[in-house]
Amino acid sequence: MDLLRYFSNHRTEIITLTLEHVWLVGVSIALAIAIGVPLGIVITRHPGLKQPVLGITNVIQIIPSLALFGFLLPVPWLGERADRLAIMALTLYALLPIVSNTYTGITTIDPAVREAARGMGMTGRQMLYIVELPLASGVILAGIRVATVITIGVATIAAAIGAGGLGEFIFRGLAMVDNRVILAGAIPAAVLALLADVGLGAIEKLLRVPR
Residues 69, 85: contact at Cβ < 8 Å? Predict the structure, then answer.
């Protein structure tokens, strides 16, 4: 009952911080898609770049989130505003599953399909947009789904640098040793992650086609 009362008394702040959280995650994922999908395509065309690109994104993924925020803090322009810093860090964290799945989705297409496309006189660009990306879209979306769920969780750490979001409640609750305050941030964040997972999972199933 205490938890429900706390949620009721602070519903405006919970909604505001949830919207901040969604904004941080949404912008970060949009940037990660804009960077990660083209990178994944590039390494399918230039296999020699696969190891360096995937190696760098792997290294970024294993850096602790607070440490990454600290590394980016001295960067000009980024360090001037907490939200910019958080978005850049979250974007970097989201790259690995998107790049990896884009590469996997394109390279695992049946070679016979490519041969048929070439036989029809398609150029490399036409093959990419008409054949490869549509066939790989389900696998690519699976990477975006994983990246989104990860980013929702990591975004709670952004509150540590003043970027807002549901992490504000979590850090405040830890400082106050108050489980109600912690759960006011943790429960909405968990709900967001579940909604993103279920929603993107449903779209992923629709996009997956026999290959």
Answer: yes
Sign, CA torsion 76/77/78/82: positive
What is the residue-averaged pLDDT of the chain? Answer: 89
| Number of alpha carbons in the 13 Å side-chain half-sphere of residue 97 | 18
Residue 169 CB coordination number (10 Å): 27
The 3-state secondary structure of 7-50 reads HHHCHHHHHHHHHHHHHHHHHHHHHHHHHHHHHHHHHHHCHHHH
CA 171 to chain centre: 22
Cα–Cα distance between 94 and 149 in angstroms, integer?
9
pTM metric for this prediction? 0.90
Q: What is the dihedral angle through the alpha carbons of 107, 113, 114, 115, rounded to the nearest 10 degrees?
A: 140
Region label for 112, one of left (φ > 0), alpha (ψ between -120 and 50) or beta (otherwise): alpha
> CB within 8 A of 197, min separation 6: which ones?
145, 148, 149
* Cα of 192 vs its chain's centroid, Å: 13
Which element (helix H / strand E) includes 190?
helix 179-207
What is the spatial distance between Cα 26 and Cα 8, in angstroms, rounded to a whole number?
26
Structure tokens at 129: 């947009």
pLDDT of residue 78: 67
Q: Look at residue 30 in the predicted model and tell me its pLDDT.
A: 97
Low-confidence ranges of the chain (pLDDT < 50): none
Q: Where are the alpha helices (DSSP H) in 122-178?
A: 124-126, 133-154, 167-176
